[in-house]
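Summary for the steering committee. One of the milestones for this cycle was to obtain a three-dimensional model of the protein with adenosine-5'-diphosphate bound, which we needed before selecting residues for the alanine scan. The sequence and ligand used are listed below.
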Amino acid sequence: MCAAKTSKSKTEKRTDKAGENPPEKAKKKADDKSAASPAPGGGRFVVVGNLKGGSGKSTVVFNLAVWLADQGHTIRLVDLDPQKTLTDLVAVRTELGWEPALATPLTTAELPPGGPGSWTLVDVGAADMAGMLTAVGSADLVLVPVMPGQADIWATQRYLKTIDRERPDHGVVRLFVNRADAGSGSRETREAVVALEAISGMLGAVSVLPARLGRRIAFCRSLSEGSAVFELEPKSKASEEFQALAQAIVEPRRGRNRKS
Ligand SMILES: Nc1ncnc2c1ncn2[C@@H]1O[C@H](COP(=O)(O)OP(=O)(O)O)[C@@H](O)[C@H]1O
Ligand SMILES: [Mg+2]
């Protein structure tokens, strides 16, 4: 379980900034940026969604935003979850002075297209289905974090069917396992991957990313400290896993899903 902090206190900020207990420098760049390819002709629009709470949507949006911003991309964040985890997280980051800074997330997905090289990242769950479907209709990539577990698999199947039925114009869909048991050979994780592959085979333009994130304390710290895992613990397994996932996400965009 992730231990929670009760406040985003400026006392912590002062401690960090005074260098008495400094975090690894936020400006430290991710190791390998070579695969990040700016999309030709316009910005990327990515929805990170699932019907299931706790699957890691906000964590992934936030870490991906920092990773992309670190490489000089313009980032537009959209937080459609009434819990506003992403918004709180950006506020903590701002308060603690981490760089690159992220702008306060927007609250609507009805946006003009982003400029070339920009990334719009939408964090959305079941609480705003209308917003979810609007966002999915604009997305060139729908990214779906899934925790291993039967209820999560069912919810993901339902989610995919919903977006495929309601928004057949959705972009490419990529599923990935989040909060996998450490040691990726665990039975639960293997079964989850098999189940997700079976689900994805039922729909066009859906596939499972081989990259996955283990259940690691660094992701909890990421939320409580307003910084990405590769800023907090650059040499950690969490950092390595996240960067592999990010590289897979920023692959050049493929065609949108059109059913024949
Ligand atoms: N890979 C992971 N390992 C450990 N904890 C994680 C991981 N991904 C997310 N978490 C934690 O799980 C909780 C839910 O994550 P969150 O991103 O808020 O999910 P969602 O936005 O889908 O509701 C948070 O406490 C977060 O720190
Ligand atoms: Mg969330």
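Key point for the committee: The first strand starts at residue 44 and ends at 49.
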